[in-house]
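Subject: Putative tricarboxylic transport membrane protein structure
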Amino acid sequence: MEGLTALFTSGFAVALTPINLLWALIGCTLGTAVGVLPGIGPAVTVALLLPVAQSIDPTSSLIMFAGIYSGAMFGGSTTSILLNTPGESGSIISALEGNKMAKAGRAGQALATAAIGSFIAGTIANLLLTLVAPFVADLAIKLGPADNFALMIFTFVAVSAVLGASPLRGITSLTIGLCVGLTGIEEQSGQPRFTLGLLQLADGVDVTVVILGLFAVGETFYMAAYEGGLVSQVERLGSAVRMTVEDWKRSWKPWIRGTFLGFPLGTIPAGGTELPTFLSYTIERKLTRHPEEFGKGAIEGVAGPEAANNAAATGTLVPLLTLGLPTSATAAIILAAFQQYNIQPGPLLFDTDPALVWGLIASLYIGNVMLLVLNLPMIRIWVKMLHIPRPYLYAGILIFATMGAYSIRQSWFDLMLLAMVGVLGFLMRRYSFPVVPLVVGLIVGPIAEKQFRRALSISQGDLTVFITHPISATILAVAAALIVLPLIVKRLRKVHDDNPLEH
């Protein structure tokens, strides 16, 4: 514990330097803004800033990205409550009760319980991250290449077969990501792979360009095509953003329940922020003493999901920092930011670069306080952003994406690739193909290949190494179960429907 305290204290020494405080403030402010603006999430923002971050110190840039991620969770509730248009996927549930509260003249109370709940959940989740991450890192050090490869296979299966309504579409998206990620000269044989005979692809596809195309360009195309003409009414903020004594009594238990529900679900692949918020809403609806208010503006329906949303966002950092595995789109892009600096997150990172890890964790506490100040006293400023015409936002995103892609190598080929990937991203969104599996395959695929080769090298080419090691065999069995069990359940339901029991 003394060693943990010393590391934690050194992390605050890093995070409290003037330059890192400034980047934390910039990240929190940008995150809140993109959370408020409909259709612009943290994944798009981090993707747009990847080219810029190359000229910034790694610790400072990662502190900024963490601030953007956390800020978007805070800001997303504003759009959900006042516009009934979730700014982030994790804020979808908050719109159900929050917008009803706004229509009833209680927008201030809805925004207050969302902001305070996010602060409390973020603080507790940060403490859990501080305690859990070193423990997980110590365990992860003991894993061999076969175990690490099995973990990555589990991640692939979880984000593709579990995420979304169609496992086939998820696996298709993952396959595209793996093919793009493995494009280039193969290390051992020196033969080109998936290059289509193009010399520009010999060094592989630039991850930043692909991410910009998928999230910035593709998402903007989709929003402009299908949601650009929508006109939504912004509810009036009304009274000051504060809660009554009764509101506090009805909110504090949902805050705690949402926190301890969201954090563990955020650490698992495909957990995301949507699942814990839905579960939190369901739990609060069953436990409430005011069931008649649900569907009409129950404050518990905002407090619980918003706490779960923020706790889950912090939970995604556990596998990212300790195992190098992303469990959400934004986490995958932050992993790309690590790789930009030739830093590979994982258990060894806690020993090789403790200043970065603990400085990043300490900045989460500081950013949480910043976000509370930014969201409660300054809420009227953020509300004004809802009146910005959407075409201006779309044009700005496309301009920044184009500039960012060109600045990497000053190559016309990257601009063409940006446009092509943008069209792919648009089509995937249009036909409900999940983008997260593609990004995970793109970034984690090359790492999985290296672990696979190391495992075979140690075992002298014996493929049974993956099933003779207890840990890897268990993980692969769980991954297989994720694929097989839903098929069995679906088959049993079909048989039951075809042959109902007669009573």
